[in-house]
Amino acid sequence: MAGGFVNIPKIPELRKRLLFTLGLLAVYRVGIFITSPGCDREVMSRIVGTANQGLLGLVNMFSGGAIEQMSIFALGIMPYISSSIILQLLTVVVPTLERLKKEGDVGQKKITQYTRYGTILLSIVQGFGIAAFLEGLRDASQTPVVVDPGIGFKLMTVISLTTGTAFIMWLGEQITERGIGNGMSLIIFAGIVARIPSAIISTTQLMQQDIVKPFTLALVGIIMVAVIGVVVFFERGQRRIPVQYAKRVVGRRVMGGQATHLPLKVNMAGVIPPIFASSILMFPATIANYVDSPWMRDFSAVLDPGAWLYNVVYVALIIFFCYFYTAVTFNPVDVADNMKKSGGYIPGIRPGRRTADYIERVLSRITLGGAIYVSAICVIPTILAKNFDVQFFFGGTALLIVVGVALDTVQQIESHLITRHYTGFTGPKGPRIRGRRTA
After folding, report:
1. Is 92 inside any structural domain?
2. Angstrom distance (rounded) from CA 185 to CA 439
3. Cα separation of 364 and 326, whole Å?
4. How many domains does the structure of the chain reveal?
5. Contact (CB, 8 A) for 134 and 83
6. Contacts of 421 (CB under 8 A, 6+ apart)
7. What's 71's DSSP letter?
8. Which domain holds residue 75?
9. Which secondary-structure segment (H or E) carries 287?
10. Element (H, E) at 178
11. Does residue 216 sit in the same domain as residue 190?
12. What Rg do the C-alpha atoms of the chain give, in angstroms?
């Protein structure tokens, strides 16, 4: 594997792509520390520090700490992801979008353009919401976050946050086009990884204060390494359905006749299900912090993270969203039709409707295993925090993102190495690293 890394600087194109990617990620991290006009960064930092387990803490994690800094990048890349998901859902119900999706690169460019417009629209709406939310936000000493509230502050906040999101979207697209890996995923990856040093420092301080025992920390570390290994195993897992293509005579040449396979990933939905499930469950607790209502506080206490009811509802929501998102993004009927048009068939299965039913049946079984795997990875951190009295939060969703994006990026680097006649990271006889498509 060390030889693979040594060969990276020998390829000029790969070297330029890596430097370009690192340069744009550095620009993104610098922008995190540019505070939006009219906000007190220190007050906001104290408020977010007391809400690490709430919705505010979840958004802060995916924005790379931008909420804590009340940065111009506070919205992060989430409006783009939300817009992309909305377009994917609309593709199923809107015939015009469905036809665009089937038109190849031209249709995809049009859908990407609609996604950009949706990102700006969502950023404006969320910007107004955040501005109104900040005007009434105070820390424990009743110090306000907003220095001078009013319509001027709202407009300035909307302009700042919308511009920041548009710039992040541009950075992500530039990384995808001219760099290495998926730009949007790498931006989220960089935000999560950038918080690891501070987490290590805080954990060291807890050990010095004898709050966390060395044995407990070592045991948790072993469990974390094992969980990472399980994530890598399942993210690379595929169910390969054999596909045979019939021979066709084109002029004087005989085309086709080769055998291939249809790969179905164990985790087709990626990290979307736990993100949706976490947002839904954390929303009541977030509202209860700002709404003085007894029934809201009781409802929030029932769904307290770590309680058995919270875990049960969390797992149920993850399983539901795994099936829902997989059904939206993968259509067995279209796959079967394309296979039939290309002269392909699954041995022992009649082309057409029978093939679609077979693929759907296999996909349903795989999705169940993938949903159980994602649920287990996301529930393990809660169990560790409760049973081992660990004070820091080891996010399962963040782990899925980090490992998945790392696999995808390494797989692209290895493809460049193999294309230039170098061996991959695992050597000439080693297995090829397979990435996964991020959501």
Report:
1. yes
2. 8
3. 9
4. 2
5. no
6. none
7. B
8. 1-194
9. helix 272-290
10. helix 151-178
11. no
12. 24
Map tokens 């859908």 to a residue: 111
Q: Find where tokens 């029934």 sit.
A: 295
230 and 288 in a single domain? The answer is yes
Give me the residue label for tokens 């609309």. Answer: 90
Q: Are residues 41 and 178 in the same domain?
A: yes
- Structure tokens belonging to residue 171: 């950075």
Q: How far apart are CA 91 and CA 392, in angstroms?
A: 40
439 lies in some domain: no
pLDDT per residue of the chain (439 residues) written in tens, 0 to 9: 555 567 777 788 888 999 999 999 999 999 998 888 888 888 888 887 665 555 666 677 777 778 888 899 988 888 888 888 888 888 878 888 888 887 878 888 888 899 999 999 999 988 888 888 888 778 778 888 888 888 999 999 999 999 999 999 999 999 999 988 888 888 888 888 887 777 777 777 777 777 777 777 788 778 888 888 888 888 888 888 888 887 666 566 656 567 888 888 888 888 888 878 877 777 666 666 556 667 666 666 666 666 778 888 888 999 998 998 888 888 898 888 888 887 888 888 888 889 999 999 999 999 999 999 999 888 877 777 666 655 555 567 788 888 888 888 888 888 877 776 655 555 555 555 555 543 3
47 CB burial (10 A radius; 0-12, 13-18, 19+): buried
For residue 144, the SS3 value is strand
Assess whether 365 and 279 both reside in one domain.
Answer: yes
- Is 340 part of a structural domain of the chain? yes
The reply to whether 414 falls in a domain is: no
87 with 118: CB under 8 angstroms?
A: yes
Element spanning 327, H or E: helix 308-329
Q: Which residues contact 115 (CB under 8 A, 6 or more apart)?
A: 80, 83, 84, 87
Same domain, 225 and 282: yes
Instruction: Tell if the pTM clears 0.85, that is, is over it.
Output: no
**CA dihedral (32, 34, 39, 45) positive or negative:** positive
What DSSP state is assigned to residue 388? S
- Greatest Cα-to-Cα distance within the chain, rounded to the nearest angstrom: 84
Extract the runs of DSSP E, i.e. beta strands, from 104-217.
none
Whether residues 15 and 163 share a domain: the answer is yes
Residue finishing a domain among 144, 163, 194: 194
CB 220 within 8 A of CB 212: no
CA–CA dist 183, 21 (Å, integer): 8
Distance CA(187)–CA(206), nearest Å, equals 30
Q: What is the CATH number of the domain that holds 231?
A: 1.10.3370.10
